[in-house]
Amino acid sequence: MKEYLPILVVFLFVLGFAVTNLVLAHLLGRHRNTRAKLMPYECGIDPVGSAHQRFSVRFYLVAMMFILFDIEAVFLLPWAVIFRSLSEKLSRPFVYAEMMVFLIVLLVGYIYVWKKGVFEWNRG
Amino acid sequence: MLKWITFAPLIGALLCGFLGKKLGEKFVSLVACGSVAVSMVLAFFAFFTKLLPLPEGQRVVTEHFFTWIEVGTFRADFAYLLDPLSGTYILFITGVGLLIHIYATGYMHGDEGFYRFFAYLNLFMFMMLTLVLGDNLLLLFVGWEGVGLCSYLLIGYYIERQEAGDAAKKAFIVNRIGDFGYSIGVMVAFTTFTSVSFVDKTIGGKLIPSLLTQAAEKPVEAVGAFGIMTAIALLLFVGACGKSAQVPLFVWLPDAMAGPTPVSALIHAATMVTAGVYLTARCSAIFTRSQTALLIVAVVGAFTAMFAATIGIAQNDIKKVLAYSTVSQLGYMFLACGVGAFTAGIFHVMTHAFFKALLFLGAGSVIHGMHEEQDIRRMGGLKKYMPWTFKTMMVGWLAISGVPLLSGFFSKDEILWQTWSSTALPTGLTKTLWFLALATALLTAVYMTRLMVLTFWGKERFDVAKDEGHHKTEHHEGEHHAIHPHESPKVMWIPLVVLAVLSIVGGYVGVSAAWGGSNAIEHFLSPVIAKAAPMIDTAHGAAAATASHAAEAAEAHHDVTTERIFTGISVVVAFLGIFLGWTMFTAQPLRKMPSLLENKYYVDEIYDAAIVNPILGTSRNFLWRILDVKIIDGAINGIAHLFGETGSTMRFLQTGFARSYAAIMLVGAIVLILYFTFR
Amino acid sequence: MQFSNLNLDYFSILPEIITALAGVILMLIDAFSKKAGRKLSPMFSLFALVATLASIIALWPRASYTASFAGMIVNDHLRLYFALVIVACGIIATLLASQFLDDEALPPGEFYALMMFATTGMLMMASAGDLVMVFLGLETSSIATYVMAGYRRTDLRANESSLKYFLLGSFSAAFLLYGMALTYGATGTTNIEGIRQILIAGKVIYPQMLLVGVAMMLVGFGFKIATAPFHLWTPDVYEGAPTLVTAILATGPKVAVFAAFLRVFAEGLGTPTAPAVGAQIYDNWINALAVMAAIGMTFGNIVALAQRNMKRMLAYSSIAHGGYTLIGFLTTEYAPVGFYMLTYALMSLGAFAIVQMLAREGDAKTEISDYAGIGFEVPNLSFPLAIFMLSMAGIPPMAGFMGKFYVFKSAWVSSPNLRWLVIVAIINSIISVYYYLYPIVVMFFRPPVSDFTKPRLSPMSQLALAITIIGTLYFGLFPNGALKVLQQKTPGAQQVAVQK
Fold it and tell me: In angstroms, what separates the C-alpha of C281 from chain A's closest C-alpha?
């Protein structure tokens, strides 16, 4: 069980970070409650009522973009951590090139969605 | 050379099909008849210069075209085999085929689908010749399906008629039931012999003897023993029943008369329908190994012969009468095969091709001359209008009835005698079958006489029987007064004359020894036909029985006096039939026939009620409408309602569907997992 | 995992690299210039696919069971053969696409890009030597085809089809993935050859878990090849999707899934003599699949009898064909499956292509009654359709007959336990004649409808049609070449143990 200790530490740290921020915000921030601010989820769609209503497809696009680049970061991190040890076993250019391929693919995707106007919220 | 026999009509078909519409009738007639003529000349040439000079017993000419499929131990070639059996077939196929092609150029004159018709007809010739010449069961199957396809296209040729389309479909589907037996038969044969070829083949470096050779070495399975040979033979026989319209798969043939008459003559009388007999004779080595199979073949044949003949008596459509007559005659051929007299069967195939093609073409000529009238009740007295048609059809009539010295007499008599004297089946049975066959001969003479009397003799009844009701008259409503029968053009009656000559002389190749002949055809065919073993008496030792029966058989064979007496009996029966028919139907041509017979024993209705409607009904009403739409979708929607999701059901109906599909998948998955874990 | 046997053989994934790159480039062409895209894209896709074809052929002499990329990629005859069929399907579909997109006035660029990505995924499935690769390939191709099914964005039926396909496809993918996870848990490897070795050695860690895992993988594959009871999506999706997309759905992905299915089940789990759970698993999946095949083809054929819509009829017919293919599958040899898939793909693409051409904008005319009397109006379409129908019905000398015959014969000879299934299949193929003949009867034997106008045919469509017709006749008459290729190696014959 000993090897799981760092995970526990990280877990506690994350929990502490979140709680501390909430508490600090509550203590330090100014409280001017409006109707909109009191809603459980401030921006986006009204969560109460029928779920079967139409809302803009752009929400999904943004959400998907977010997930993609999120995963990019998640994938980059462990790669960076083991880069040195992996390079010793395999050739260094190979380890480097593999990640570059991944990044280029993402970059192309980024260019594509940009040209297609996904980021222009007001278009159309 | 052999391949050009088949490819000539194929090229003709392609030319007619692709260029025929533009280049017109003359071109099509020339190409269609020309290609078949080439094929016929080559067939005769191959037969007389290649096959006949070979020493007896070694008459085999093969031609390898390409290896069609070779995987592992399985090999089927695109290769042709010319031997006495296929040789006999190609002669009468190309000969009769050419005559019918020539006739059809007159019959179809002016039809807007002229080129289409001849394209199909030529294609049929190609397929039929491939069927007969194919050197293995699989290539035979290509021809087998190919002729089925052409028959389908030609039955449905008159596209504007609903019944033609239906008849075409029926023919195809009933044939497929036969093919089911055939396909499994091929597979069982392959697993048994590791060969599907009729000739020895090198497969994977090893010489595999032909399946016929191997079959001939297997022990004979007695009646009641259901071994592998019986299985193969019976499976192949199911296929033969479909193609050759035997009980219970005969229903398509009478309906097939919806096609143009030359088609009925060529495909549904002379050639294609005898493919089943060909298959049986070709595989005689297999059939003779199983006495159960022989017995079933004989009984089915005799029963079909009798059954169809009784129906034939009560039909009023000239082509329907001939159709049932064909079914009945095919029954004869199978009876011959069943009693082990395969050569007699093939002999009858040949003579039947002559006189039945003649009768059909004659009927076509009558229909033509009567302006598309097919009901014999509305004919009569035609002999003075159509002298050539009358004279030639008379030959056909006498030939099929078994009047001595005409072709039908020799072949039918041979079958009757072989049935009586057969040692391949239990004695009591052969005598019963002989009696059935004899009764059928009587009926044949009666219904053919009825046909002739109603058509050519007596008073003209061109406008009577309108009130009789149930005949389709949509084409002629109001114009029947204008019927002036006329003789058909030369191009039509000349083939009739040739066929009439053949119907007279065609029998002399098989005059039996009892009448001073040498039975050339039997002699010629016998090297490729297996002999049926004498009946095995299972109660006593097989060996002893074989010996005694063999002796008996030999004795029976020389019993010339008995054979002559039996010939006498069949002559008497033939004349009796003609006499009966004559007296009955000249006196009262329109006498009412038993309704059970007129309605063909209600076989179609029974099949519809018992087989066709249940399957379609299940499909439409249960599997699709109920299981697929109602239960699956309904159940889930119902649950949705139950849980109060009543709002806007219509709008979210689609979601319901997907959900229900997912639910079924889940059930399937759970069943699978349970099966995997708890088995 | 050890990296000593990484074997970075880039040449072995050249086909996948070409299609993936081509997909990316097509995407960019469309993003930067729509105009250029319309003209350039079809030509470029064709070029890329032909290059892929060439690369597959170039790989042929190197075919052996050598796994590259740490066992992820297997370059054997199974892979190469199926890759060939997949790319051939891709080429035919690409040829048909430009007319389809023009007629329907749809944006062209993305369609070709999606098709390239789908092809990449399919090729990955064929070359996968590892469960992870199988899943990756499956998802890559599936996501592309989900989008293609809804490509006619403004059409409600297409939307419905796409959404259903997506929802149910994801559902089944979840089963597959979970099954793979359990298999990994039970054996400690995701490598297919590795799993086989473990089964043979009898070293399965958690046998019960493996059983559940395999059952779940069977669900996932069963969905993709549309066999009962996981076939329900097929008719709705096939009917709603644009006909060309239906043609693609019915062929390429099916071929690819059968390749992966063969790899995982026939090869990885094809262990009849393994000790304990290995043999049990083999028995289980063989029996389960036999029943599924029988139900699938019977259901497909009988329901197809009642259909009056051409696309729906072909959808049910494809369920039936899936069942026939499974019979070949049960011999655990790849040759019958491979050959059947080849013939099926050809006649299916051809038939759907003609339906597409006759259907007009928005798939307006896909009822069989719309075909009344067109037989001699458009002989260049009606005769090919008749050929494809007869081929599907299994009439010689068309390819469909040879495919059926070869499958039935292989199954009949391989095991007496499969004979009942062959008989069921033959009865089924008799029933099927009835509905395959129906369009022919309607086309040739019914009076024509008045408002019929001849459809336009672009040269590329004509070429595609010609390929399918010639293929359908060629493989019926001369199947030997393809069968020789298929005989070159059967999986499991000379396998090299992979590092564990």
Answer: 35
